[in-house]
Amino acid sequence: MTDPAATSASLTQQEAQDRAALIEVDRYDIRVDVRELAEGDRWLATSSIVFSCREPGATTFVDCVGEVLSASLNDIPLDLSSVAGGRIPLAGLEADNVLVVSSAQTDTGSGDAILRSVDPQDKLVYVWSSFEPDGARRAWACFDQPDLKAVHGFQVSAPQEWTVLSNTGPEVVLDRDDGGRLWIFEDTPRLSTYVVVVNAGPFHELREERGGHSLGLYCRQSLKSYLERDAEELFTVTEQGLAFFGDRFAVPFPQQRYDQVFVPDFGGAMENWGCVTWTDSVLHRTPPTYGERQFRALVLLHEMAHMWFGDLVTMRWWDDLWLNEAFASFASTWASASATEYHDAWAAFLAEEQRLAYQQDMGPASHPIRTSVPDVGHAFASFDAITYFKGQATLAQLMAYVSEETFVEGLRSYFRDHAYGNAELGDLMSAIGAAAGQDLAEWTTSWLDRAGTDTISLVGTTLLISSPDGGEPRRHALRVGSYNRTDDGLEKRGELLVQTTGTTTYLPDLPVADVHVLNDGDLTFAAVRTDESSLQLLLSEAARLPEAVNRAVAVGTAWDMLTKGELATGDFLECVLAVLATEQSPGVVEPFFGLALRAAEQWSPAVLVPRRLARLADVAVTRADEPDHRTAALQTLAWAASQPEHFELLDDAAEDDVDLAWRVMVRRASLGRYDEAAVAELLARDPDPEAHLRAWGVSAARPVEEAKAEAWERFWRERAVPAGPPTPAFALCFWRPVQHDLLVPWAHRFLDEVTNVSGGGLLALGGMVRHMRPSTCDDAWLQRASDLANSDDVQPVVRTELQIGVDMLSRVLRARS
Ligand SMILES: [Zn+2]
């Protein structure tokens, strides 16, 4: 049998435009039967679609990828032999139509739109669906494009003991005569096909009334103790977010019920209306660190922001997917800093995500934030750090440019005017432009349609600005902070708010000071080089700057200089280790430790790695004494440990911390001290149903050929490492940069894999390729990878990841030489 997905056509923008011009969908009534999934693999659905046609007699098609069992249009059976490429032709449309299609989907094991998952511990079965961008057509017949929104009414038959979750609450649950129960859900509001959901399984449920909403949290039975441990925090951030967005957008979330469902084998999280689906890896099996909790809060708020921006008002076509994502990421950081305990969210964003955007923006994988998306297959091709994080930084810059108050006013009219409908970038920009009383057309083109990062340099009292494409630089709204050295650190003498135009902006009022911090507070997206006399002090005294966000500006500048070959790895390490010795803001401690580790083990010549890791280990040992930073410090130490006293400290701490125990074991294994009996013992002690993945990681870290071969087989052949956080964790164990000689042939094998890789959905595929990218290579690899990226032999999502890898690793090799 052929895989129907392999032969299904990808909807083009033109086809979507034609179809939206022709029809309007009134409602979907969808009956789903998941009872067979308790034992087998078949998902059954009957979709009844009520829609009108503006040109009676015309022809169109409905999407349905799966086995079509029967189909009728206006009570006339359709000829099933005409079904091809995941499309059912519909001829002779009337002004008002009813289409009924019954279909079956048996591809429920790969995670493409629907996944049936068996808990390895208790063997209970859970089923989730996730449709972005065009997975709904794999579950039932629908007009699968974002601008044909409709009311959805779901009726789901499920095994007796299962709970079914969908976008709305169940109206009634009935016993069926032929076994199981029938769940009938309230109608949804008008929604796009990609944000509806059906999840089913014997879920554990927690529910609370907060702030006028009924909040539900769900997970599989084997993880319920972790959900219960973290529930108070999840409820609190959910309540804070709903209140914050409801107020800023001047539209309360219109539905009382807001559920979040944590499921296995899922990558990331998905903003289904009223029923967000999450990877249950975020229910950490050992108490989460500050960084993990902060990240989880950001994801929670990101998906929640989509309820307004994405679900309530939806992009017309996937070319605005970047806006959808960038806005949600922006809004989550904004809400996090304003309404939750994570006040340092913007500093943490700069230290981690914005840095990734700068990195990609300086290489061949750079692209304008806005790109064309000719068909759905390209929707995720540019789904990367530029889309999410540069996009987010650009929106933050827009807010700085027009002021927060004006920005909010613009958003409010945008949501008011387009609720339950579709909109485009232009609609948002004109709403904000109207609030600001200015035309944002030039701002829009210069920030969204041009690739690359501007560089802003301070020379004397003049700002010089250049764009990498040699064109007119963008307009920047930024702050220049001026600081003097005192015994207590660097003290702010003054700050200038500057709006730049063109290549040169004079700062006649710049005070005399020891250090000028360009882009103080990180308002704009630019590479900054302060004046020569400030620069040395900025690098050496970064730790003494009063605000975390500015320490992140300093460390970020140093990293930018390292990657561009303007600063030696050793000098970068001096800067970041000095900051790490005293940094108090927990949101940046973890990313700074991460950067220091990469500099020491990946960016340093092999001969210097042990000494540099030892210096990092010293800092980590000191910080491990402070309760707020203990976990981050110990986790770093676990990557850098070499001395008996390091291992002694770690082993002591790991006695009641299974997660740390696994990390220490990875380190020992990577140094050639693999202890099979100890692994088995820890595996028995770890209550996590996925603990075997940790054991595989330990094995994969061993510096021996057979261990790498076994790990490779598990990852690429058996696909046994689930998408989401387990993938990067496993990849980190495999790719230990110091095992360079052993790993180079595997780096080459990676290129063979990515040429052939397929299945599992585009998002999961992108994740596999991104995270399993080598951390070390040789010159021949750089050549092969760049040839491959320039060929037609790889999918777009793979090409982007290859380009990023080539660019980064060539910089790494240069820094090591
Ligand atoms: Zn999103």
Descriptive overview:
Mean pLDDT is 95; it is low at 1-6. This protein is α+β, with helices and mostly antiparallel strands and 817 residues long. The protein has 27 helices and 28 strands. β22 (455-459) and β23 form a beta hairpin. The longest helix is centred in the first third of the chain and has 25 residues, at 224-248. It is 44% helix and 19% strand. The strands form eight sheets. An eight-stranded mixed β-sheet has the order 5-4-7-2-1-10-13-12. The structure holds zinc ion (ZN).
Task: Please write out the topology.
Layout: H1 4-7, H2 13-22, E1 23-33, E2 43-53, E3 60-63, E4 67-73, E5 76-77, E6 87-90, E7 96-105, E8 114-118, E9 125-129, H3 136-139, E10 151-158, E11 163-166, E12 170-175, E13 181-185, E14 198-201, E15 204-210, E16 213-219, H4 224-248, E17 257-263, E18 269-270, E19 275-279, H5 290-308, E20 314-315, H6 321-339, H7 345-361, H8 385-402, H9 404-418, E21 422-423, H10 425-436, H11 441-448, E22 455-459, E23 462-466, E24 477-486, E25 489-499, E26 504-506, E27 515-518, E28 527-529, H12 532-541, H13 548-563, H14 569-582, H15 586-601, H16 609-623, H17 630-640, H18 644-654, H19 658-670, H20 676-685, H21 691-700, H22 705-717, H23 726-734, H24 740-756, H25 762-771, H26 779-789, H27 796-816
Parallel strand pairs: 1-10, 16-17, 17-19, 20-21, 22-28
Antiparallel strand pairs: 1-2, 2-7, 3-6, 4-5, 4-7, 8-9, 10-13, 11-14, 12-13, 15-16, 18-19, 22-23, 23-26, 24-25, 24-27
Helix pairs in contact: 4-5, 4-6, 5-6, 6-8, 7-8, 7-13, 7-15, 8-9, 9-10, 13-14, 14-15, 14-16, 15-16, 15-17, 16-17, 17-19, 18-19, 19-21, 21-22, 21-23, 24-26, 25-27, 26-27
Bound molecules: zinc ion.
